[in-house]
Design a protein that fits this description.
Number of helices: 1
Radius of gyration: 15 Å
Distance between the termini: 38 Å
Shape: globular
Helix content: under 10%
Number of domains: 1
CATH architecture: Roll
CATH class: Mainly Beta
């Protein structure tokens, strides 16, 4: 068991739990290893804690909880980087931001693709005008 001192206190983890980002996150290519940790409160939010920099953590969520029609499928190049074939499971995560005015937004144009079979992640940029880096949450979640 390994430990990491973070803003959440000491976190114990097994190396098999680490989510690998071979290319890092966009703009943060040196951060390649993360732990996904549930939020302490009930709800659809999770923390991604960097193992490479214990001071860095982001909040992520499954965007389909709020936007039912937000469905992504990795292309061949992305599947190769994730280490999965065409039938391999892949989930999208969106980075959550909270502005100074307390508005909560999701980055739907730069989602994180996650392959549970390989524990690899990849952040991609979508060329789709429907999505923004600061997409406000709808007033009522899809459900």
């Amino acid at each position: 068991m390994n430990t990491l001192q973070t803003r959440f206190g000491e976190v114990s983890y097994d190396a098999a739990q680490i989510l690998q980002f071979p290319e890092g996150l966009i703009g943060l290519d040196r951060l390649q290893r993360f732990l996904v940790m549930p939020n302490r409160k009930e709800g659809p939010l999770f923390w991604m804690q960097s193992v490479d920099d214990p001071d860095f953590a982001i909040v992520v969520t499954d965007p389909t909880h709020f936007f039912r029609d937000y469905l992504l499928a990795p292309d061949e190049r992305e599947r190769e980087k994730l280490g999965i074939d065409a039938d391999g499971a892949c989930h999208a995560l969106a980075i959550v931001s909270i502005s100074d005015s307390r508005e909560i937004t999701l980055n739907l144009s730069g989602p994180i693709l996650y392959a549970p079979a390989t524990n690899r992640g990849l952040q991609v940029i979508l060329d789709d005008p429907r999505y923004s880096t600061r997409t406000p949450l709808p007033t009522v979640p899809a459900g």
